[in-house]
Amino acid sequence: MTTTSLTFDVKTDDYLIWQGQVVMSRSEHPYFCQLFECLAKDLRPTRVLEIGFGLGISADLIQHYLHPAEHHIVEVDTGIYADLVQFASAQTGVVPYLGDWRSTSLPAPFDLVFYDPFDYSSEPDDVVSEASLLRRLVGNEGALCHPHFGDGLPRSLPGFQTAILERFLVPEIEMADGTHCGHAAAVLCFSEK
Ligand SMILES: C[S@@+](CC[C@H](N)C(=O)[O-])C[C@H]1O[C@@H](n2cnc3c(N)ncnc32)[C@H](O)[C@@H]1O
Known about the structure:
By secondary structure, the protein is α/β, with parallel strands linked by helices. Helix content is 25%, strand content 33%. The chain has one domain: Vaccinia Virus protein VP39 (Rossmann fold, 3-Layer(aba) Sandwich). Strand 1 (10-11) and strand 2 (15-18) form a beta hairpin.
């Protein structure tokens, strides 16, 4: 997959639903506000990479809380990429890319990678290759952040050390499968030296 042009069941400012699954919904907004406010206490990243534009909620909050000089955003779907281009045209320093993050040429390393894609494929995850590509994007000094839903342990990515900065009680978030979740966390991952 290099790009896709998906037909969404619903594509509005508040919802992206594909084949019955919630790809993204505005119910994540309160959590993302807490998340980026929390990251801004510790991080002042100059160069940010965001993987997956979705509804542009995190993109907006990254601009608001982190003020990066460069904000690179990669999106695989052509329709969502059109929204990203519009977002980029209204900001300074936002660089849009159309493609699969795994095969797009991106100017790594970044100080912060916000990793929030959605898996449209039915293939099993290849976590070793995923983590290895992510390690290249953050280099030795950068940090990786991914959304963490629930009150359990964060996902373990080979070659990364993971820190939970804060856990939050959040207004109910709609998950991909239609269930709801009221807990979330701010998680940062660093390449193991
Ligand atoms: C959960 S949404 C991102 C939500 C976004 N953080 C927001 O705040 O609205 C996932 C996004 O990742 C995109 N995506 C999925 N697979 C991708 C890939 N391999 N490369 C780049 N983007 C991808 C989807 O099309 C979708 O726009």
